[in-house]
Amino acid sequence: MGTTQLESVPEPKYWHLKMVIGEALDSDFTVGEILPNERDLAARFGVARATLRQALEQLELEGRLQRRRGVGTTVAPPRMGVDVSTTQHAWPGSAQDAWQSFDCARAVPPAAVARMLATAEHEETYTLRRLRVSHGQPVAAEQLFVPASSVPELSAIDAPSGAARARAVLRELQRLDLDGQDRAVELGSARADDARELDRLPGSPVLVVTTRYFSRGRTAAVTLATYRADTCRLTFGDSGDVQISHHGEERRAS
To answer: Fewer CB within a 10 Å sphere, N or C end of the chain?
Structure first.
């Protein structure tokens, strides 16, 4: 990575520096390689460390770099493509499902989810916590809400709690006929619990995908999936049937 003169550049120094480092990432570094420390980089480019940090933070936000505790700043792998079209006609927990379930509890869902499920006020649902991992790193966290009426044969004796109950709920969902599903996508900020599971700071930018699953003329389950915006890119397949939400407005993806 060579040096460059930044004094006469009209853009903010950190922005031009970000472009220079970005070009070097494409030509001089490989995925997973550790960058030189901040002191060496700042000296090499003749900038203050504060300017360097701004450039590195922008590259991290764009998914080009990853800051790993105890390791340093590394070159990030390409963003993982996540198909959020509704052409995949399957329940959560099916054979092609990439999520890993780790917990399940009975809890009252958020009001918006309760409305979608048409459950009674304060009615508890099975709430599953799931993770999606890529290159050994968590890239998405999901909550799956399933009312008891969708899995009436679920036995508390067979699945008392935690991951065992999660597997039992998913197994019971497979018994239902899936009529269809729809999805909405919006930009959001990571909540404390999602941030902890995704190894991010609370408030970090995320993509939130809400999916409703229909069976027998009603909503049988709802998922809220939170994807790291720095490591994921959402794809819409060929159907263009995903709703993209922003500031309360929705439009059909094309």
So the answer is: C
3-state SS track over the chain: CCCCCCCCCCCCHHHHHHHHHHHHHHHHCCCCCECCCHHHHHHHHCCCHHHHHHHHHHHHHCCCEEEECCCEEEECCCCEEEECCCCCCCCCCCCCCCCEEEEEEEECCCHHHHHHHCCCCCCCEEEEEEEEEECCEEEEEEEEEEEHHHCCCCCCCCCCCHHHHHHHHHHHHCCCCCCEEEEEEEEEECCHHHHHHHCCCCCCEEEEEEEEEEECCEEEEEEEEEEECCCEEEECCCCCCCEEEECCEEEECC
Which of 61-65, 83-87, 216-220 reaches the highest mean pLDDT?
Answer: 216-220
Which amino acid belongs to residue 185? V
**CA atoms within 13 Å, Cβ hemisphere of 245:** 12
**Cα Rg of the chain (Å, integer):** 22
Is residue 245 over pLDDT 80? no
pLDDT digits (tens, 9 = 90+) for 44-81: 888 899 999 999 888 887 778 877 777 788 888 777 77
Cα distances (Å, whole numbers) of residue 250 to 73, 169, 184, 253 = 37, 32, 8, 9
How many C-beta atoms surround the C-beta of residue 96 within 10 A?
6
pTM recorded for the entire structure: 0.70
End-to-end CA distance of the chain: 40
Write out the two tokens for 74. Answer: 């590394």
Distance CA 198, CA 138 (A): 5
